[in-house]
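Hi team,

Below is the intake form for Cytochrome P450 2C21-like from Echinops telfairi. Please confirm the fields before the structure is written into the shared record.

FORM ID: S-0412
PROTEIN: Cytochrome P450 2C21-like
ORGANISM: Echinops telfairi
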Amino acid sequence: MDLFIILVICLACLILLSLLNQGNARRKLPPGPTPLPIIGNVLQINIKNITKSLRMLAKEYGPVFTVHFGMSPTVVLYGYDAVKEALIDRREDFSGRGRFPVLDKITQHLGIVSSNGEIWKQTRRFTLMVLRNMGMGKKTIEDRIQEEAMCLVDMLKKKKGAPCDPTFLFGCAPCNVIYSIIFQNRLDYSDETLVNLIKYFHENITIASSPWIQLCNAFPFLMDYFPGSHKKLFQNFQNQKKFILEKIKEHQESLDRNNPKDFIDYFLIKMEQEKHNKHSEFTMDNLIITIWDVFSAGTETTTTTIRYGILLLLKHPEIAAKVQEEIDHVVGRTRSLCLKDRASLPYTDAVVHEIQRFIDLVPSSLPHVVNQDIKFRDYFIPKGTNILPSLTSVLYDEKAFPNPEKFDPGHFLDESGNFKKSDYFIPFSAGKRVCAGEGLARMELFLILSTILQHFTLKPLVDPKDIDITPTAYGLGTLPPFYELCFIPV
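The structure came back. Fields below:
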């Protein structure tokens, strides 16, 4: 038989099988747009801005609906009530990590972010314990953040008010904070190691947020048979893995089992304690990926938030001026800001929260998965179905944040000007998969951003009304456009 005919028959069978599978699944799952064979709803979704597409679909199908990224159905949760019901009220059912093929290829389902089951439970519990031991939420880590914030101030002063691209410098402080937790010491801002690490983190989040990666997640075979930016992502990981292995070897040679000094020491001691347990989750492979998870998340997310936050303050100089006025009145310009000051700086605290809400850094979180067959709002969702909680739909809820498209610190202030908490503030996600480093990130964002404004006036190179704050990517992360500014010492 002619090879062409065989291929046509195989393709026809594949399409028929796809139609049967999709038909059976769609009768059980929440409603959604009709998927095409094999490619699903890809043509109906703008992969350059999935967030916008989901908003339009929610208007048509409601707060719980199904879309097909390729042949795989994904249930989308849209709006505070649906997200809260799933991630908080039914946290056990929705606590699994869903498929994210590009990331899965790197992590092999190890570490914290991409793992499931016992390995996830033990690794996350252990990581949180070590972070607390290393000072997360305590004065010890606050001192480190203050030190790095002042190092950043010193480097910015050396610019002497000249225009500069702050991308690298904004990465140094968060990177050094998490670096000291994992590897004990810090790096000088001129150190080539720090320069390369920040470059990798920045490239990784940029690539991971690109439309091409969205396609690779929908059609994983693209990664194996086509060139693309995913190759650069994988190469960056190999370079980072090599660096991590070198640091682990150094720690193995100098390990003091009675006096662990950093995350690696704690993990190596745990590995030694469980060396006779054949089912132990504390392996060398898991250590490497856990370090990569913690290091990546602890650096780039905070860095991007600071970078985007400063751009918003350039766009709104009246808000930056009001923050500076409050800091001058409460703290002054000579004493270092500390976390205790936050209670006395309600406007500054509101600005930091509004930055996180407005930029919507991780629009849909990473996908979840249901751990068992469940019934949710009269719909049947089979075990293993991907779940996509839209954090955007909560952070931009019009009831909680009137006029949400406007950057307005008043979203977090009451009528008396006091800071106002909101249950709708979930930039770190919610439930069992909430970001393990949330406490550390919140400390860093408040201290670093407020310290910058304590010491500098932000001077844009163009009229504020001409500053473009439109993101350059709406993928895994929401990324700000390139910009330069002048840091004028006060």
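SUMMARY LINE: The longest helix spans residues 284-315.

Thanks, M.
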